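Why does residue order matter? Because the sequence determines the fold. Keep that principle in mind as you read this record.
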Amino acid sequence: MNEIEWQEGALYSGMWGGADTLFSLISPDDFDEGHPRRLAELIERGSTDEVDSLSAWVIDEAMKHGKEFHLYAVRIMSSGFTGTPRYYAEKIREVSSKRHVEAALSRGLQRIKSADADAYEIAETVQGDLKDMPRPADTNDDTWTLQDIMSMQIESEPFTLPDLLKRNERLVLTGSEGGGKSVFVYQMLTGAAYGVDTFSLERTEPKRVLFIDVENNEFQARGNLDKIVPTLNEIAPDAEPDWRSMKRRVIDLLQTRDRSEVIRRVVHYNPDILYMGTAYKLTDVSDDTHRSVRAIQSVVDRIRQEINCSVLVEHHAGHGHMNDRNNMRPEGSSYWLRWPDFGYGMQPLPTSNGRRLMRLGAWRGDRATDRRFPVAVKQSDVMPWAPIYEDEWEVLYADKYDKS
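Structure:
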């Protein structure tokens, strides 16, 4: 038999009771365009709607699409193929998969011949196309059994930021512009590179840290670090921090080339902790905020899949400054609310002594309970920011700032 006969056999078996099996293994898109695909769509729709007599219903519907298509459907219904739906589906899937691979490789080869071709961009596109290749639905290697799950050895991931973030977790930190977010982030992550918990000032295991800072240039970064590094050098004089910041500051993750470049460079440096921000500068200005957010999220998730690092994304708040759960929600798309493992915002509070005080509040529920985020941070003489935990807050600050 050839490809045409496999398709016609599949359609025949689908019309006469095999539709559920057939379309659990393939879809109408696996059939050739024209009559075969249109008839497959009708058979699938009729089986989904659970019509009384599928073959009679399909013939009636085929009449609405013209005489030629009706005659094609009648011929298929009376063809008398003897193979099983599974047999035909497997044959069609094999052909469809080969066609998909051939098309993906052909597009890549055509593009690589262009004078301005970017090999990494083309490779990423081809890899994405190949990952989208239809696969058999009846294989067992893409599911977990109950026994698989229950027999797993649970190993806790190590903390990359003590009591805050573990490997492969995502934190989105929000706040108003100029509110101290950047210094706060630089403090925590530079401390991690030195092997110092900048909240407790205790020594920890040093981490590899990479900044993709598209907000602060190198001179502004130096200004932040001048407030942090001298103290860290005193606490950890023997440290050799593995701290890097990408020089490139203009990035548009909506563009395939930029996405590929960022992923490739981050995977190459292989950090334990990755910082990206500020979020609105990671994509070009776009009215489609959902698309912009998804571009950032897909790049982060691809990186996490490759190297299992923690990721901290800095973003602006867009919902005011009231001290409740929604005051510090990220600006723009609601997609931000569902994605991170932890979402916190920094909000300035008025003080009478001239020293800064910032409330650190969650704008989404934590996905883990074994964490100890401060409820606020205050200006400090040792580090720029010192933590305030619940007990200290209740004694010294709650009466003044928690009033409704």
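The first strand starts at residue 159 and ends at 161.
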